[in-house]
Design goal:
Two copies of one chain form a homodimer.
Chain A lengths: L2 E6 L7 H16 L3 E6 L5 H12 L5 H8 L1 H16 L4 E4 L1 H4 L1 E3 L8 E4 L2 H8 L3 E5 L2 E3 L5 E3 L4 H12 L4 E6 L20 E3 H9 L7 H10 L3 E5 L7 E4 L12 E17 L4 H11 L4 E6 L7 E9 L3 H9 L2 H4 L3 E14 L9 H11 L6 E5 L2 E7 L3 H11 L6
Parallel strand pairs in A: 1-2, 1-9, 2-6, 3-6, 9-11, 10-12
Antiparallel strand pairs in A: 4-5, 7-8, 11-12, 13-15, 13-16, 14-15, 16-18, 17-18
Helix pairs in contact in A: 1-4, 7-9, 8-9, 13-14
C-alpha cells in the first residue's frame, strides 16, 4: 500500500465530464489498494472570470477580499469532485483550506504555507476516505482566506504530500511530462523519465511552466518525490527526484527557451563604484526582477556599456524608472529591445564536465546566431539571442547534445 | 444613531455596476451616522449555475457537498461588495458564515440558524467598520459549510439583525414593498406602509414571494422590525411589525393569489373512521404538503366525496401514491384538476369583524365565479376557483374591500 497525493489542474477539471474522468483515475488508484488524497484547481476559466470581477471593481484592490472572491473556484471543484467520487462508490469528502487547516502567512494573494494540520486528513485516509482538498487556498493568522498565487495548487499538492508523508505526489496536467525540449519545436524531443529538483527549478525559471517554481522548491526542501503526468492520456510521466536517485546522470537534460525577455543597454555609463547599485536599487524597490546582467570592461577606465534583461511586461516601467534618474546616473543613451529570446541548456551533469558551454557557443556560431548576453549557474548556461532564431537555436542545440530519441 | 442591517438580493447585486449602486446606498446610510451591517445573496443567476453543476453530477447528491458548491455565490458577492465599499472610502470587510460564526444545525441544504456569535461583528461596527456578511450560509456542528435553503439570505438578515440588536432590518429587493394586491393585475393596488408579521406570513404562504417564510417567523419571534424596499428606486417600503405598532388596523390588508395549486377529489370514499388518516398518512410520509381539505357530509352515511389541494409539482406523485392503494382506500374514482387558483383575503382586522368571509363569497357570486373549496384561518379566508377567473376575482375583491388608492 502506498500513500499518494494527486493534483488535478484546471484543464483536467474543466467540465463535469472532465471531473468524471478524473474521478475514474482516483477510483483506480483507490481500487489498487492505495491511500489517496486529492487536491484540485478551479475549473478552467473560472479563476479568470473571478479575477475579472475584481478588476472590474478596481485595479487597486484589497488583497484580502481578492482572495475571498478568487478562492471560490477551487471550493466549487472540490465539492463537485467529492460528489462524483461518492456517485462512483468511493468514500470521499471535500475539505476547504480553513477546515484542514492549511495555515499560511498573511501575504494575501501570494501567501506561503506555514503549517498543515495533517491529523484530520490522516485519520480519514486511514479509515479509507479520500479527502478532496480545495487547492490554492489557506487560512491566515487572522482567520481569513488566503490564496497562494497563480498555479498555487501545485504548491498545495506538494505541501500536503509532505505533511501526509506521501510516497508520491502526482501532478496531473495537460502535458504528459517534462521533455528534453518543447515538442512543438523539436520533433524528436524525448520525455524524461526522471529529472532533479534543481533542473526542474531552472526549467521553471526559464518558462517551462509545468510546475510552479515554489512547488519545486518545497518538494526539494522535503525531498518529496513528485510525478508530472497527463490526465488526458495514460502512461507514466516524469519523476522529479533527488539527484542521488538518478543513477545515470545525463550531461544535459534539456533545452529551454523564453521569449518573455527584454534587453536594456545603457551606453557609456560612468565606470565608477556605486553605479550598478544606483541603477538596480530603484528597480528592486519597484519590484522589477532583473535577470541577466553584463558589464564590459571599459577601455579607457572612464565609461562602459551596461546590459541587462527584465521581463517584457516590466520594460516600460524599467525605462521610466531609469530615465527619471538620467542626470544622476550619468549615462549616454538608453537602448532597449524586446525582440530577444533566452535559450538555456540545463543539466546537473555539467557540474562535473567541462565543455558544455563551449558546445553551446560553437553550435550557435555555426548557425550564424549572435550571442548578446551570457549568464551561467552551476547547472545552466543561458544566452540571449535575436528572437527570430529561437527555433533554429533550440533544434540545433537539441541535436548537438544528442538529446533526441534514439 | 441607529443600527441597521441591510440585505441585498440577487437582482440587486446582479453585476459589478449593480453592486456599485448598492455600495452607494450603504455609504449614504453610513454617512448619515448609522451603524450598518450588510448581508448579500449571490449575483442573479449564480446559484442556478452552481445548482446546475451539482444536478449534472447526480440527482441524488450529498447535501453537504451541495452546500460547499452552492455557498460560493454569496462568498463572491461579499468580497466584491467589500471591495466596492473600500473604493468608496467606506471601511468594510467581508465575513463568511464560519468566520462570524453563524452556527446552524446539520440539516445541510436547509439548515436552521441555532446561534450567531455577534461579538466580533459588534466590535467592528462600534469601531466604524461595515461588516459585509455572505448570506444563505452557516457552519454546522461538524465544522462544515451549511446553506439555509433558497431565499435563505432573508433569514440570515433577520437573524443577524436580532443578534446585533438592530433597530431595523432593511430587505432590499426588486419590488418596493408589499401591496394590497399584485400591481400587475390591479392597477390601483396600494403599497402598504405597515403590515403585521402574521399577515406577512399568510402572504408568503400563498405565493407573495417578497420574504422567505422562515425569515418572517424569525422576525416575529424576536419582534425584529423589518422593512421591505426596492434597491432600484428611492423612497420607503413596507414595514413588517408587531400588531400593536399598527394603530389603525385595516379590516383587510391585501388580496393574494396562487396558481401553483392542484385539486384532487376522491369520489365516493367510504365514510368510516380512519379513512382520512389512511389517505393523508402516505402523502405526509412522501413529504407531500396537503393544503386545503374539504369533506362533505355523506347523505346516506356510507360514502362521501373528499377534496384536497397539493402543490402542482406534487400532483403526479400524489396521484400515484393514492392509486397504488386504491383497494385499501376503497374509493370510487379519483379526479384531479390543475386549472385552479387559490385566492386569499388577508387581514388581522378580520378577527374582530364578522362579515369578511361573507363579503368575499358574495363578491365572487356576483361575478359568477364558483367556489370549489374554502379554508380559513384567524386572519385569512382562502377559496379555490377556476384558474381563468384569477384576475377577475382579485380585482373584484380588491374593489369590494375598498383597498385601492384613495
Amino acid at each position: 500500500m502506498k500513500r499518494i497525493v494527486q493534483k488535478f489542474g484546471g484543464t483536467s477539471v474543466a467540465s463535469v465530464d472532465r471531473i468524471r474522468a478524473v474521478g475514474k483515475r482516483i477510483k483506480a488508484e483507490v481500487d489498487s489498494g492505495n491511500e489517496v488524497a486529492v487536491t484540485v484547481s478551479a475549473m478552467a476559466g473560472e479563476t479568470n472570470r473571478l479575477v475579472g470581477y475584481v478588476d472590474e471593481v478596481s485595479s487597486l484592490y484589497d488583497a484580502c477580499e481578492y482572495d475571498v472572491v478568487v478562492s471560490t473556484g477551487e471550493q466549487v471543484t472540490s465539492g463537485l469532485l467529492a460528489l462524483v467520487l461518492q456517485q462512483m462508490g468511493v468514500n470521499a469528502r471535500s475539505w476547504l483550506g480553513w477546515q484542514v487547516a492549511i495555515s499560511t502567512d498573511d501575504a494575501y494573494g501570494k501567501a506561503r504555507i506555514m503549517k498543515i494540520n495533517a491529523e484530520l486528513l490522516d485519520d480519514r485516509m486511514k479509515s479509507g476516505q479520500v479527502p478532496v482538498i480545495a487547492g490554492f487556498q489557506g487560512i491566515s493568522p487572522d482567520n481569513r482566506v488566503t490564496t497562494l498565487g497563480r498555479g498555487g495548487t501545485d504548491t498545495s499538492a506538494v505541501a500536503l504530500a509532505a505533511a501526509l508523508g506521501a510516497d508520491r505526489c502526482d501532478i496531473y496536467t495537460d502535458v504528459d511530462g517534462v521533455y528534453t525540449a518543447d515538442p512543438r519545436i523539436v520533433s524528436d524531443a524525448r520525455k524524461l523519465e526522471k529529472i532533479t529538483y534543481e533542473e526542474m527549478l531552472e526549467m521553471a525559471s526559464v518558462g517551462t511552466k509545468v510546475l510552479q517554481t515554489r512547488a519545486v522548491e518545497m518538494a526539494m526542501k522535503h525531498s518529496q518525490k513528485v510525478q508530472v503526468l497527463s490526465s488526458f492520456s495514460d502512461g507514466s510521466g516524469t519523476l522529479v527526484v533527488d539527484e542521488d536517485e538518478i543513477v545515470e546522470k545525463e550531461l544535459v537534460s534539456g533545452i529551454a527557451y523564453s521569449s518573455d525577455e527584454a534587453k536594456v543597454t545603457l551606453v557609456k555609463v560612468l565606470d565608477k563604484p556605486g553605479v550598478a547599485a544606483a541603477i538596480f536599487g530603484p528597480l528592486a524597490e519597484a519590484n522589477i526582477n532583473v535577470d541577466m546582467i553584463v558589464q564590459n570592461v571599459s577601455e579607457d577606465g572612464k565609461a562602459t556599456d551596461l546590459t541587462f534583461t527584465v521581463a517584457q511586461n516590466d520594460l516600460e516601467r524599467t525605462v521610466a524608472k531609469i530615465e527619471e534618474r538620467h542626470q544622476d546616473l550619468g549615462y549616454g543613451t538608453l537602448v532597449h529591445d524586446s525582440k530577444v529570446a533566452k535559450i538555456s541548456v540545463i543539466g546537473v551533469g555539467m557540474r562535473s564536465h567541462a565543455g558544455v558551454a563551449q558546445t553551446m557557443f560553437q553550435t550557435l556560431a555555426e548557425k550564424g546566431i549572435n550571442i548578446q548576453v551570457i549568464s551561467t549557474s552551476e547547472i545552466k548556461v543561458s544566452v540571449l539571442i535575436e528572437e527570430q532564431y529561437t527555433e533554429l537555436a533550440v533544434r540545433a542545440l537539441h541535436s548537438a547534445y544528442a538529446l533526441g530519441t534514439l
